[in-house]
Structure formats: structure tokens, C-alpha cells
Specification:
The complex is a heterodimer.
Chain A: E1 4-8, H1 16-27, E2 33-38, H2 43-53, E3 57-64, E4 67-73
Parallel strand pairs in A: 1-2
Antiparallel strand pairs in A: 2-4, 3-4
Chain B: E1 6-15, H1 19-30, E2 35-39, H2 65-78, E3 82-86, E4 90-92, E5 98-101, E6 105-114, E7 118-120, H3 128-131, E8 136-137, H4 140-143, E9 151-155, H5 159-168, E10 174-178, H6 190-198, E11 202-205, E12 208-215, E13 219-226, E14 232-236, E15 239-242, E16 246-248, E17 278-280, H7 292-320, E18 325-330, H8 335-338, H9 341-350, E19 355-360, H10 366-371, E20 378-383, E21 386-392, H11 398-412
Helix pairs in contact in B: 1-2, 1-7, 5-6
The chains are: A alpha+beta, B alpha/beta.
Chain lengths: 76, 413
């Protein structure tokens, strides 16, 4: 069964969330889900952009004012 | 293994969160419909690529595209519209309940409004793919500051190309413009053309198209080809901005929704597509003018039509088809069609077990369409949840109507 991993990047500015997300996703298996929690609006752009470019499934959820979860499903 | 998708029900699912999607959201939300907007990138859509919007009414000083879209977004949120930032994977619009799936969710909706908009067109020249986002850009607002004191190239001569080109001269040291047309010919409006020609920082290369993009990792020059002489010229530039029009974002709907050869969705003036309960609004539609103002016009109609579709479906199923009866379909502004109403009242007194519906088509033909009525006035007989018979046009003969009801009543007994 695929698993979900939550990566807490609250309070971290670019490019830290992106670098952390890249490393975390590497360790996951196909179909696993990585949830990157961010509150830095620049990460809200570059994390999903990177993940989409890699071909993964991406969804962004605004969980609170100025706080987002970028949900990435590893597809390859 | 496929993960189980979370299922959610909505009255309206709007695909696309640009000017059209947000406007449709405002109208649906305000009509207290449970509304979801699905946006694959950033809320605001392509209008956020425009620096100055000077012709959107209500902002005499002008406003930035991002500023205007943020206001739309806030207004939609105020009416409790929900947002999902992801892309749509599959759709099934064939049933009464429309299915829209993202990678984690399955949304079931009574209506769908397609507001996918369009994407910038590419030149198709050599190495284009390689430099997308690495020197090839589509948004002057976004990338102008990064080109301060640098030389840039703009491709195109329409309103967007020339107006954004003028905007770029505030930052760049030189703005070169490649134009496919003959000397002196532009596609843009005359005001922009005059301003561009008077701008000392702008330089124009007529009769040219892009042959290729060159550079190591980042773009550093663009090879332009003269269409008349065949001569090639290398233009050194930090960024090449493409403003050569847009393509509709409609691959998801291919073979499902009717579209033009160029992929724009065909609707009627009420934004209806070929599928009942599915509407389209904004740049994705086949139409003449694509502006925030026309998106707002389209989408407000689509929002209202979605509301009407839902209300009519409920009336149709829960009232009209639920019990045996007759529906008199007429247009209330035609006096001769109103005339028959008194007869309906007459028989209503006699045959009280029967259900009587008066369907006015003046404001909407939705219920008449569902009943299969082609012309007004018509009398529709409903039996066992089905349309049994339609007597239409001038043949609304009182005796015939009375006979059918009488007959039905007798067979019941």
C-alpha cells in the first residue's frame, strides 16, 4: 500500500522547501504521496512547478490564510 | 495500486480559475449554489500576464492584471466558492450528474462550466522547447524588471505585443520587435502603433519570423529570417517575448464537446454547449473579442444559466414528471397563447385528480426542451413518468384535450 509523508516547511524561505521536497521525494516509492507544508508564497510557485515538470501529480490546498499544502503523488 | 478517490458533490463545478471562472463562481456562489472552481496553476489565469488593464470599466486609473484578478478572487471567496488547485484528469459529462476527476478527487456536479481559457501560441521554431522559461517568456509584467538595462526581442504586432513592448521600454535599454507583415503594417490598434513608432527605444524588423533560438543554457540570441529575401539575422537579446496569439485549452473536451476546427468551443448566446448542463465561457469560446470584459459578460450568463438548469431539472423531475397530468407550454407575452389558459382552468375544475402545469417559455425554454416541445403553444400529456403525447401549435384543440383526459381518467377506473 502506498504511503503519505508530511514534510513540514513552515517558516522556511526559498529555496529550502524545494530542496527538501526534492530529497524527500527521492526516498519515496511510485504512488506514494508527499505533502509539503509551506507558508512562503514563493515556494508555493516553485515547488509545484518543479513537481509538474517532473511529471508528478500535483495539487495545492490552502489550509489557512497564507498556509498551503502542496500534495505530490510520485508517478515515476 | 490506485488510491481511492475522495468523492464530493457540488451543484456547479467550474473548470478554470481565470476571469471567466471567477465571475461564474461569483454568480453561482451568490445564487447559493455549492460551487467549486478547479484551477491547475494560479488563480487569475492569463489576465495576470498583463501589466496594465486600462479598459476594464470601473478602474479609471487602470489596474494591474494581478490586482484585478485578486479582487475577483476575493469576491468569489466572499460568496463561499471553494477552490481546488490542481488539474482535471478526466471528465464524464454524458449523464445528468457530471463527473470531473482530479488525481485525488472525484467531483460529482449537476452542471459544469468550462472556463479553461487559452494558452500562448508558440512559434514552432528550432530549439523553442529548450528555452521555454529560460529566455523565452510570455509575460512582460512578470519578467520586465529582470530585463532592466538589457536588450529584449518581442515577437508579434498585435495589441498585446505592441502594448507590452512599450511597457518593456521602461525597463529594457532596447526593445526590438519582429513583425511578420510588410513595412509599416501592424495588427495592433492605431494608438499603440503611433506610441510605438514614436518610442526611441523601439526598433522594428518587418517581414521576419523566428528561425531558431540559440544559447548554451540560457537564450542569448534569436535568428530571424526575412520572409522576402530569405536573409537571416542574429538578434542578441536577454529575453524573447512571444505575443503571437493564443490557442484554446480544450484537449480535454475533444470528441465530447462541439468545437471549431481551431478547437474553440461552440456555444449559443446563453453559453450552452451541445451537452445539456454543460456551459462554456470566456476565451475558450468561439467568439470575436477576448478580453476580461467579455469574459465577465460570458461567465455571468453561464452562471445564471447553470442556476436555471439546476432549478428546472428539479421542477421537471420532482413536479412535472412525478404525477400524471398535463403541461401547457406557452409564451406568456403572446396574448393568443394566454387565451388557452382559461380552458386549462376549466378542465382543472372538472378533473381534479390530474396535475396541471403551466410552463412559460418567455424567460427560459429549458423545461419545454426537456418535454420535447418544439413550438408554442403545446399541450403535453404526462403518464407514468413519461411524455405520452404532445399536441402542438394551432392544433391545441379543446375537445381533443378534453377527450384524452377523459379517456385516461376512465381507464384508470
Amino acid at each position: 500500500m502506498s504511503k503519505e509523508v508530511v514534510l513540514d516547511c513552515f517558516g522556511e524561505a526559498c529555496p529550502v522547501p524545494l530542496v527538501k521536497a526534492e530529497k524527500a521525494l527521492e526516498k519515496l516509492e511510485i504512488n506514494d504521496i508527499l505533502i509539503v507544508q509551506i507558508d512562503h508564497s514563493c515556494a508555493m510557485k516553485n515547488v509545484p512547478e518543479w513537481a509538474r515538470k517532473q511529471g508528478h501529480n500535483v495539487e495545492i490546498e490552502e489550509i489557512d490564510d497564507g498556509e498551503w499544502e502542496v500534495i505530490i503523488e510520485k508517478v515515476k | 495500486m490506485a488510491r481511492e478517490k475522495k468523492v464530493e458533490q457540488y451543484d456547479v463545478v467550474i473548470i478554470g480559475g481565470g476571469a471567466s471562472g471567477l465571475t461564474a463562481g461569483i454568480y453561482c456562489g451568490r445564487a447559493r449554489l455549492k460551487t467549486l472552481i478547479i484551477e491547475q496553476a494560479l488563480v487569475g489565469g492569463i489576465a495576470t500576464n498583463t501589466n496594465d488593464i486600462e479598459n476594464y470599466p470601473g478602474f479609471p486609473e487602470g489596474i494591474t492584471g494581478i490586482g484585478l484578478m485578486n479582487l475577483f478572487h476575493q469576491q468569489a471567496k466572499k460568496f463561499d466558492v471553494k477552490f481546488k488547485l490542481t488539474n482535471v484528469k478526466t471528465i464524464d459529462l454524458s449523464g445528468d450528474i457530471k463527473i470531473v476527476e482530479t488525481f485525488r478527487n472525484r467531483f460529482e456536479a449537476k452542471t459544469v462550466i468550462i472556463c479553461n481559457g487559452s494558452v500562448p501560441r508558440l512559434t514552432g521554431a528550432i530549439n523553442e522547447e529548450k528555452f521555454l522559461g529560460k529566455g523565452i517568456a510570455f509575460c512582460a509584467t512578470c519578467d520586465a524588471a529582470a530585463n532592466t538595462d538589457k536588450e529584449v526581442l518581442v515577437i508579434g504586432s498585435g495589441d498585446a505585443a505592441i502594448e507590452e513592448g512599450i511597457f518593456l521600454t521602461k525597463f529594457a535599454s532596447k526593445v526590438m520587435v519582429s513583425i511578420i507583415h510588410d513595412e509599416g503594417k501592424f495588427d495592433c490598434n492605431e494608438i499603440a502603433k503611433a506610441a510605438a513608432l514614436a518610442n526611441p527605444k523601439m526598433e522594428f524588423y518587418h517581414n521576419t519570423v523566428v528561425e531558431s533560438y540559440e544559447g548554451d543554457n540560457e537564450l542569448d540570441k534569436v535568428i530571424l529570417k526575412n520572409l522576402k529575401t530569405g536573409e537571416k539575422k542574429a538578434i542578441e537579446c536577454a529575453t524573447c517575448f512571444l505575443f503571437i496569439g493564443y490557442l484554446p485549452n480544450t484537449s480535454l473536451y475533444k470528441d465530447i464537446i462541439d468545437m471549431t476546427d481551431r478547437g474553440y468551443i461552440i456555444t449559443d448566446e446563453n453559453m450552452k454547449t451541445n451537452i445539456p448542463g454543460v456551459f462554456a465561457a470566456g476565451d475558450v469560446r468561439d467568439k470575436l473579442l477576448r478580453q476580461v470584459a467579455t469574459c465577465v459578460g460570458d461567465a455571468s450568463i453561464a452562471g445564471v444559466m447553470a442556476e436555471k438548469h439546476i432549478a428546472e431539472s428539479e421542477i421537471f423531475e420532482e413536479q412535472i414528471m412525478a404525477k400524471d397530468g398535463i403541461a401547457y407550454v406557452y409564451n406568456a407575452i403572446e396574448s393568443d397563447q394566454r387565451y388557452f389558459l382559461s380552458f386549462i382552468e376549466e378542465i382543472e375544475e372538472v378533473y381534479k385528480d390530474y396535475c396541471y402545469h403551466r410552463v412559460d417559455t418567455y424567460k427560459s425554454e429549458g423545461i419545454a426542451d426537456r418535454l420535447g416541445v418544439e413550438s408554442c403553444p403545446s399541450v403535453v400529456f404526462i403518464k407514468d413518468g413519461k411524455v405520452e403525447k404532445i399536441i402542438c401549435g394551432d392544433k391545441c384543440n379543446k375537445d381533443e384535450v378534453r377527450d384524452i383526459i377523459k379517456n385516461n381518467e376512465e381507464t384508470k377506473k
